[in-house]
UniProtKB/TrEMBL annotation:
PANTHER family: OSMC_OHR FAMILY PROTEIN, OSMOTICALLY INDUCIBLE FAMILY PROTEIN. It holds the Pfam family OsmC. This is OsmC family protein. It comes from Thiomonas arsenitoxydans (strain DSM 22701 / CIP 110005 / 3As). InterPro entries: KH_dom-like_a/b (IPR015946), OsmC/Ohr_fam (IPR003718), OsmC/Ohrsf (IPR036102), OsmC_Ohr_Peroxiredoxin (IPR052707).
Length: 164
């Protein structure tokens, strides 16, 4: 078993907060040390409370599926002796209500365009097979049905508040 971590940090910047007029800007920090600005999507929370040039959770979800698929595709293609020069994908996720009225990412469509070089070029069937195998191996695609748990950690302030 391998564990992966991501830190998410948000703090109030003086806004009143209870009026729901606060910035959704936050920091996503990954185990390699890189930090990315995150926010809610402007489609979900209007400007100026969202940051349009930040990564929102929906985009992160779509990009993680696309990235995982690509990494498996490259690995499988290399093992089969195909030389990939370029892989480009404009992935798209659609958010809509499910049968219970809850918003969800109902479908994510990957549209990879792959360029090969060298004497060995995949046939259309082989290309489709490479993508099929990459999809079957993709950890993120296999995880979409994952149970999501929330285990809050009490902090000193909440411990004092609850101790009364």
């Amino acid at each position: 078993m391998t564990a992966y971590t991501a830190e998410v940090l948000w703090s109030r910047s003086g806004e009143k907060f209870v009026d729901n007029r606060y910035s959704r800007k936050h920091v996503l920090r990954f185990d390699g040390g890189i930090e990315v600005v995150g926010s809610s999507s402007p489609h979900v929370v209007p400007l100026p409370y969202s940051v349009p040039n930040a990564v929102d959770p929906e985009e992160a979800f779509v990009s993680s599926l696309s990235s995982c698929h690509m990494l498996w595709f490259l690995s499988i293609a290399a093992k089969r002796g195909f030389v990939v020069d370029r892989y480009y994908d404009i992935a798209e996720g659609v958010m809509e209500k499910d049968s219970k009225g809850k918003l969800m990412m109902s479908v994510v469509t990957l549209r990879p365009e792959v360029s090969f070089s060298g004497g060995k070029q995949p046939t259309r069937n082989e290309l489709e097979q490479l993508h099929h195998e990459a999809h079957e191996e993709c950890f993120i695609a296999n995880s979409v049905k994952t149970e999501v748990r929330c285990e809050p950690i009490p902090n000193a302030l909440s411990q004092v508040t609850h101790a009364k």
